[in-house]
């Protein structure tokens, strides 16, 4: 049997990723930060958002759509709100910059909320939300994204998979991290089905005419992803509403491009010729838990919440209830110890990247 | 054919509802406010949350679980956060009290966030969120509720239908109001299927053993509602995550009862004998749109967002994309003009209530 994954040590993958960001002109600080966001995705098992995306960022830079040394700045603010212009920087760097502003405001006033424009793909939402959790705050992170999802009743791609993340600190347990695309399934799940030659469940995609489909290649054929819920009967209007919320908070509020105007992540597709804003948008928030009750009380009740939900009566004893964030933490511990499994095609991509950018190839043993 | 609905004038229904709240001991101000929340639900076509609930509140009062003259107060705060103790008051009154605190904080600091404990059912989330919209702010409203929903992989009722609402002001268009239960379907939809003698779609409920079911009576038989998404394959872990977010923000943060400890709305079920907090919890928020960009810019882009989504290419030309909040507004305009259709069984309930409380019966013509 052919080996489809190669295991890479975290430190090697991190060092290589930093080199790539340095090679496109990032500062040492930004290269380390951007690499950390991608490596955390790989560690946490969110493979679609880790180094598998690295060449995508490089292609954007090659097209002149990404500024490796952005002058990020606040363009509008009140004591607890701000809009940040990301100056076409890496979302991986712009989002933590914005979250740190939110945290600073929350330290002083109880909460902080930062909308971001003129950015691009920010990696996993959970990374940014967890920056707030480290300060005993509740973290919010969301972003709009390339239009691939239809509103209920439409056949037009109008929205991205628009993830929303809420992260809550706990006491003895790890934080609860709800980090979810607002579509029924994200593109990564279609790719898994493609690799395995399997159909996908109804309610994930529709054809370009708007008919139900179970073909994992439907999106490539011009179809669309569906909002969480799938169809109207199963609540797709709710998934559409959540996705709209992310789009409005991230892009209408910040002055970024919203809806079908959101710039594509893939460099071979051009941004909309008549933009309605600047770049992609994010929305980050930090809310002090001790703004509502003493932190020890909050954490004790979070622990009680977690332990009660963990022991909710399972349908099948072999499959207990999963607390959001738990599988990602378990993956991270395992991968820190045993290495990060990288798919052969991604590895080829990273080797080509090293060649392109004239840097040392990734150490693979 | 038997007439199943009777049309009642808004003013008559409002006056009757106020009389009921006065009869249980509410102040004039509170009776008017509580009635307004219920009448707005009826006007907006959310019949399950309007005067159909009125006798439910009275039963709670009869059981001593509802305080008609609450001493509501802030028990913890920072410049932009607060926790309110609702003193077992009507959620219909406590939630607007809390939202007004959030709005006041937002006026001064850009945003305001209020968690509420020791409350009960607050009616439609949209009512409270729209209080912020009237001030050109983005409104958030959520509440936990009686446990009827299972987490993914469980057969135990652990969560309420836990609605979340986001409301956004616009310019020439009405506000965008996303007001949704985080379950696949709310109980009201099962009741409609029961009345019509029809099965329900898969993914709404499961049996008490955790098997799929299409029986509209399954919940009454000890089964449970399912989170948005229905099953794991269709994203029920996302619905569970959203519901958990509502539960934690509303109840863990405020010191209310969370998860399976949330007190039931129906008076014939007793609250949990070992509570983990006080009453039910809510979470309200107000975020100044002009904290991020000039309000005219924001409204102009909201209008552009709305008009672009309204004209997204439909699958069927007869069914264009629905902007969240639009059907409720249309219903409201129609019902203000033509009266509010009340189901016969609800009318009987309201007549019995008048008798019980020794007040004038509802005017029905």
Describe this structure in words.
The structure is a homodimer of 365-residue chains. Chain A is α+β, with helices and mostly antiparallel strands. Chain A contains 10 helices and 12 strands. Chain A has helices at 10-23, 28-43, 54-62, 91-109, 125-133, 187-196, 236-252, 295-310, 326-338, 344-357; strands at residues 5-8, 73-77, 81-85, 111-119, 137-143, 164-168, 176-180, 205-206, 212-213, 224-225, 280-288, 340-343. A 7-stranded mixed sheet of chain A has the order 2-3-4-11-5-6-7. In chain A, strands 9-8-10 form a 3-stranded antiparallel sheet, with no helix packed on it. In chain A, helix 1 packs across helix 2 and helix 4 runs parallel beside helix 5 (125-133). The two termini of chain A are 20 Å apart. At the A-B interface, strand 3, strand 4, strand 7, helix 7 and helix 8 of A face strand 3, strand 4, strand 7, helix 7 and helix 8 of B.
Question: Notable features of this structure?
Answer:
homodimer; 365 residues; alpha+beta; Hypothetical Oxidoreductase Yiak, Chain: A, domain 1; Ribosomal Protein S8, Chain: A, domain 1; 2 domains; three-stranded antiparallel β-sheet; 10 helices; 16% strand; globular
Shape of chain A: globular
Low-confidence stretches of chain A: none
Largest beta-sheet characterization of chain A: 7 strands, mixed
Write down the CATH class of the largest domain in chain A: Alpha Beta
Mean pLDDT figure of chain A: 96
Termini separation of chain A comes to 20 Å
The number of E-state strands of chain A comes to: 12
Most extensive chain-chain interface: A-B, 86 and 86 residues
SS-based class of chain A? alpha+beta
Q: Please report which band the strand proportion of chain A falls in: under 5%, 5-15%, 15-25%, 25-35%, 35-45% or over 45%.
A: 15-25%
- Strand line-up of the largest beta sheet of chain A: 2-3-4-11-5-6-7
Write down the oligomeric state: homodimer
Helix content of chain A: 25-40%
- The third-level CATH topology of the largest domain in chain A is Ribosomal Protein S8, Chain: A, domain 1
Q: Evaluate the radius of gyration of chain A.
A: 20 Å
| Count of the separate structural domains of chain A | 2
| CATH architecture title of the largest domain in chain A | 2-Layer Sandwich
Order of helices and strands of chain A: EHHHEEHEHEEEHEEEHEHHEH
CATH superfamily of the largest domain in chain A: Malate/L-lactate/L-sulpholactate dehydrogenase, NADPH binding domain
Number of helices of chain A: 10
């Amino acid at each position: 049997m052919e080996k489809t994954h190669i295991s890479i040590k975290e430190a090697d993958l991190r060092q290589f990723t930093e080199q790539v960001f340095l090679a496109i002109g990032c500062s040492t600080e930004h290269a380390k930060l951007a690499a950390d966001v991608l490596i955390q995705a790989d560690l946490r098992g969110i493979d679609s958002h880790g180094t598998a995306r690295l060449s995508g960022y490089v292609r954007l830079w090659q097209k002149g759509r990404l500024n490796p040394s952005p002058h990020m700045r606040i363009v509008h603010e009140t004591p607890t709100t701000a809009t940040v212009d990301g100056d076409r920087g890496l979302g991986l760097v712009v989002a933590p910059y914005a979250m740190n502003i939110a945290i600073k405001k929350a330290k002083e006033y109880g909460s902080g909320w930062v909308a971001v424009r003129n950015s691009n793909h920010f990696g996993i939402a959970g990374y940014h939300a967890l920056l707030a959790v480290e300060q005993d705050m509740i973290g919010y992170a969301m972003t709009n994204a390339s239009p691939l999802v239809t509103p209920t009743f439409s056949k037009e791609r109008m929205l991205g998979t628009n993830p929303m993340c809420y992260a809550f600190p706990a006491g003895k347990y790890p934080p609860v991290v709800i980090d979810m695309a607002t579509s029924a399934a994200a593109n990564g799940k279609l790719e898994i089905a493609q690799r395995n030659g399997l159909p996908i469940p109804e309610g994930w995609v529709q054809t370009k005419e708007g008919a139900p489909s179970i073909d994992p290649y439907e999106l490539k054929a011009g179809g669309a992803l569906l909002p969480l819920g799938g169809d109207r009967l199963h609540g797709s209007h709710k998934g559409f509403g959540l996705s709209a919320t992310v789009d409005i908070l991230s892009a209408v509020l910040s002055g970024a491009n919203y809806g079908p105007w959101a710039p594509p992540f893939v460099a071979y597709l051009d941004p909309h010729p008549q933009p309605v804003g600047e770049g992609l948008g994010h929305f980050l928030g930090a809310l002090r838990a001790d703004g509502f009750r003493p932190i020890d009380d909050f954490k004790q009740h979070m622990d009680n919440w977690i332990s009660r939900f963990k022991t909710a009566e399972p349908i099948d004893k072999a499959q207990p209830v999963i607390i959001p964030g738990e599988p990602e933490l378990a993956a991270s511990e395992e991968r820190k110890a045993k290495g990060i499994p990288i798919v052969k095609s991604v590895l080829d991509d990273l080797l080509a990247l090293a060649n392109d950018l004239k840097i040392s190839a990734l150490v693979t043993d």
